[in-house]
Design brief:
This protein is of the alpha/beta class. The chain contains 14 helices and 8 strands. Strands 1-6-5-2-4-3 form a 6-stranded mixed beta sheet, sandwiched between helices. A two-stranded antiparallel sheet has the order 7-8. Strand 5, helix 4 and strand 6 form a beta-alpha-beta unit. Helix 5 crosses helix 13 and helix 9 packs across helix 11. Bound molecules: ligand AR6. The site of ligand AR6 has 24 residues, from strand 2 and helix 1.
Length: 339
Amino acid sequence: MPLHIIRQDITKLKCEAIVNAANNTLLGGGGVDGAIHKAAGGKLLEECKTLGGCDTGDAKITKGYNLLCKYVIHTVGPIWRGGQFNEKALLESCYRKSLTLAKLHGCESVAFPLISSGVYGYPKDRALSVAVDTISEFLFDNEMTVYIVVFDKEAYEISEELFDDVTEYIDDNYLDERFGWQTKTEHYNPSCFDTEGEGRYYKIDCQELAEMFGEVPNKLIDMLSKMDDNFAVTLLKLIDIKGITEVECYKKANVSKQTWYKIMNEKNYKPSKNTVIAFAIALELSLEETKHLLSTVGFTLSKSNKFDIIIEYFLLNKEYNIFTINETLFKFDQVCLGM
Ligand code: AR6
């Protein structure tokens, strides 16, 4: 998927460009800036000295030196002064300018820390939502894999109300097969995902079958022709019904063009449960519609799986923001959609 939110040290990340939360001098500092300069080695500072600083909201690019990435993009976020001083627009500009620079240099993957959310004091939850919105907007028109690297879980704070609601829903609905109906959330049942490409599905063509096996009893042919559409066909029909374009659909689902291509063109390609749910969210399907879409690939939503119950909660509440859903999944230690 094009946008991933991960928890890691950005200096250890292997991708084409990493973004540095720098200051106007571009001559290094603390936080992620200090960590990047330390890992890159002294030559990074030498190159930075030639750049003549950088305005707040702007970005400049250098080589990556000893880092695992080819480039470092240095951007200067705003200092948080309560939100009335153009902070949001400046922060959006940091992401846009950095992504534009990455594109200009042919980068296919870029990783961002949460700019301004450390020393510069931008509230982490707001900084994350600016990052997600601005990057998603860019990805709508561009093909790139972008990582938002959150160093601590604090950035991922969903609202207390949402957390309490989801906790209550899990408590009321979670069926642990070992313990019967279960009311404590701490019995963590890890989500189980089928990996991409595993398993097989195909639409059975009766003519093909007849050719393969010779005479096939009429009853069987009849039965097979009444079989439901496969995932790709169902998906296309749903897109049509919802009146959106295919591109809008897979972008909204945070699914890459490559995965979309495989779904549409590879007869034996089976999308993961995670991907199917991402499409259900993008298409704003109801719970029943989602179950139907899942069933076309042999999946279901189970009461003994915490991940499934959280998804069910969002579908019933018609909350289709994939990033809110991911933040919640993350908070409950579940695998996020598209990761
Ligand atoms: N990997 C990923 N994220 C990190 C890492 C890391 N290794 N280290 C810190 N973070 P900050 P700012 C997170 O303070 O707020 C410097 O002195 C951190 O938890 O690095 O934009 C500059 O020179 C936080 O969420 O950057 C400037 O003077 C986020 O990165 C000033 O700080 C950004 O925190 C810039 O402040």
